[in-house]
Amino acid sequence: MNTILTFSGLLFVFLGLAYMYRPSWILTINKFARERIFCDARVILERRQKGLLFLLCSVLLFYWSYSRALYSPTRIMDYFVSTDRMFYQARNNFRVGEYGKADRACLKILSREPENSEALYLLAASRYLSGDKSGAEEVWSKAELVRAMTPMAQQFRDVCLRFKRPTTL
Length: 169
Hints:
By secondary structure, the protein is an all-alpha fold.
């Protein structure tokens, strides 16, 4: 995407400079476009094929931008993504072993809802499994203070208890 934006920027710089300093180039490009691309015969005879091509390209670009916005969250998207969606992403990251991503998602959830027991237990489990035992203990103590037991919170509490040793977590 950055390559396309960079190329588009360079194209507009080139066009701007050509309009200001080399108008003969613009006239040549315009003449070529009128004769080859926007020829009346081609426009009339091939309008449906070209129209379909442009529509398909627009659908592809709209889908590309939508999927990019949906699956690569930015700061703006963080405001529009629900807490349930973030927890779903955190849980999936935890299940595939990406504990750092699960940790970051849980922290985003807790910035919105500090008393979210599911996120607290998941954060404790991900920190413990990533090797941060002191951080896991700290989060575990917060989670035990909240102690709101939903089925999902109970599931991650059980994960923490499974790895719990008498002196840790």
